Amino acid sequence: MFQFQCDYTEGAHPLILKRLEETNFQQTEGYGNDIYCARAKERIRKLCKAEDADVHFLVGGTQVNFTVISSILRPHQGVAAASSGHINMHETGAVEATGHKVLTIPSEDGKITAEQVRALYEAHWSDADHEHMVQPGMVYISHPTENGTLYSKEELTALKRTCTALGLPLFLDGARMGYGLASEKSTFGLEDIAELTDVFYIGGTKVGALFGEAVVITNPNFRRDFRYLIKQHGGMLAKGRLLGIQFDVLFENGLYFELAGHADALAMRLKEAFVKKGYELRYDSWTNQQFPILPNDHIKKLKKDYSFALWETVDEAHKAVRFCTSWATKEEAVDALIRDIEAL
Predict the structure, then answer these.
(1) Could you give the angle at which helices 14-22 and 241-250 cross, rounded to 10 degrees?
(2) How far apart are CA 122 and CA 37, in angstroms?
(3) Which residues contact 4 (CB under 8 A, 6 or more apart)?
(4) 58, 78, 250, 305: which could join 103 in a potential S-S bond, CB 3.0 to 4.6 Å?
(5) Is residue 45 classed as helix, strand or coil in its secondary structure?
(6) Is CATH 1.10.10.10 correct for 14-253?
(7) Choices 3.90.1150.10, 1.20.1440.230, 2.40.50.100, 3.40.50.300: CATH for 2-7+256-342
(8) Among residues 299, 275, 270, 303, which one has the least CA distance to residue 287?
(9) Distances (CA, A) of 291 to 75, 79, 143, 302, 336
(10) How far apart, in whole angstroms, are the C-alpha atoms of residue 253 and residue 312?
(11) What's the rounded Cα separation, in Å, for the pair 288 and 178?
């Protein structure tokens, strides 16, 4: 059985495991106050061209999302996000559990626009009863989106400009950021994300690490007491160096982008195979997630040898499914899948 279910089925890149083993018996200060976390933070700041940015390491994406969002919002405020956004669809109400509503914006492809953000904001403030409603307090996006789609630099710039004008902080979920930045259709880099958002995070869990996400706070207004809030939300790892070591390795010699590029290249081979076979694609993804629309009987045949996700029902005879490559996907797995696609 070949796994295309998600991009975190494997453990970690061997170089990370090697470094963890090499440093296993070293004694360091806890809670991220160690030399490895310090070095990893400096690497990230330099890549972001944001020398004064705050960098914090947490264990997982959901933990990051509700910690960051609840740290910024006031009690009566909510966070605007695409209806398909991860915080709305796949985090078991974690944000709502902190007391903050997710204010959804309709989206066909997973992205939201500057115009939609302004419309949401103006609809709230033009309502005579706005004091009885949850106030928009920040904007959440992900890059890539849940549907594998990418923001362009122009779209991100427009979002940032509108958010700044309206006083809404912009937070970017980067759980799969590597796969977005390595895409052949990417129009910006890490330094642009640092410039065009207030807070973002770099996902490690899905791009070669055992676990871990790096939160980068570029807006100084949101830095104060963030470590207090990490601790309060159960996110402060006592053996924090385990996170720092992993990000130190990932960004030491460009490994992060190399691994992401590997996954994207294999996903493009799958995309080509699906299109060549005549399948429509639910989303035009240029990242490691691909969403072909398959006949139900073809899905049943592929399920015998491959694990992949059922995404949505298109009609009685067809479903959109997701095939997800990762930093660790092997060429032979993709070769086998392509042969079986061609044979359907």
Answers:
(1) 130
(2) 42
(3) 306, 307, 308, 323, 324, 325, 329, 333, 337
(4) 78
(5) helix
(6) no
(7) 3.90.1150.10
(8) 270
(9) 38, 28, 17, 14, 18
(10) 39
(11) 10
Is pLDDT of 1 > 90?
Answer: no
Q: Which residues pair with 55 in a beta bridge?
A: 216
Phi-psi region of 13 (alpha: psi -120 to 50; beta: other; left: phi over 0): beta
For the record, the structure tokens of 224 come out as 């104060």
Cα separation, 101 vs 134, whole angstroms: 7
d(CA 166, CA 105): 17
- Give the three-state DSSP class for 13: coil
Over residues 283-337, the pLDDT tens digits come to 999 999 999 999 999 999 999 999 999 999 999 999 999 999 999 999 999 999 9
Residue 47 has pLDDT above 90, yes or no: yes
